[in-house]
Amino acid sequence: MNDLSIAPLSAIQTVTTTDQVFESLYHALITFKLAPGTKVSEIEIAKALGVSRQPVRDAFFRLSQVGFLLIRPQRATLITKISSQAVLQASFIRTALETACFLDAVNTMTEDDFDEIRSLLAQQKTAIAADERSKFHELDDRMHQRICEMSGHGYAWALIQEQKAHMDRVRFLSLSFGQQTAFDQHLSITDALFARDADAVQKHLEEHLGRIKYILPQIREEHPQYFEDSDT
């Protein structure tokens, strides 16, 4: 038998350098530390993050796949501007997938699951009080992800993530005025889940996820420089 140098499963690292670079850049993009319409360099990013160019190149490709970067051979890579059409299409797909997950969660969530969601809600409330918008955004996503996982459809969250990238920059900008509204809607959704009221869950979730359609024009008017010219 061959002497294979394979690490035990417990020692295998599941988070790669590329994953870390991707998450770091994704966060910088949705919080506008890297602004739409500007150029971005593999060399500069690699130097800033203290990594080689290969994981940055791989992360750039993944970011281009979700619509954040425009990679142009032999030319500078550009951070894409926000497309209103892409945001609305992503909202439609996310609502369909997440509604199916949440409706199943009505029957699958346990009391321990409810306690975990209550803890996330408490953390969201703390983030609002401190006006920590980035933290609130993170906790918002975490709550939605965990409910999808608790429904038995955790795999659906990967599909939702691919779509919601188009929404995330708009969602972050909306937190300058909409954190409390988002939190209140979370309370309505989770109260319905705790009561195992499927009709109310669907009603409140669709209202919550559909809100982006109504705030998008305001965000576009306040930040026209971040949107594609065809949107203005």
TrEMBL record:
Span of domain HTH gntR-type: 15-82
Pfam families: FCD (PF07729), GntR (PF00392)
Lineage: superkingdom: Bacteria
Molecular-function annotations in GO: DNA binding; DNA-binding transcription factor activity
Signal peptide interval: none
Keywords per UniProt: DNA-binding, Transcription, Transcription regulation
UniProt xrefs under SMART domains: FCD, HTH_GNTR
SUPFAM superfamilies (alphabetical): GntR ligand-binding domain-like, Winged helix' DNA-binding domain
Membrane-traversing stretches: none
Protein name: Transcriptional regulator, GntR family
Source organism phylogeny: Bacteria, Pseudomonadati, Pseudomonadota, Alphaproteobacteria, Rhodobacterales
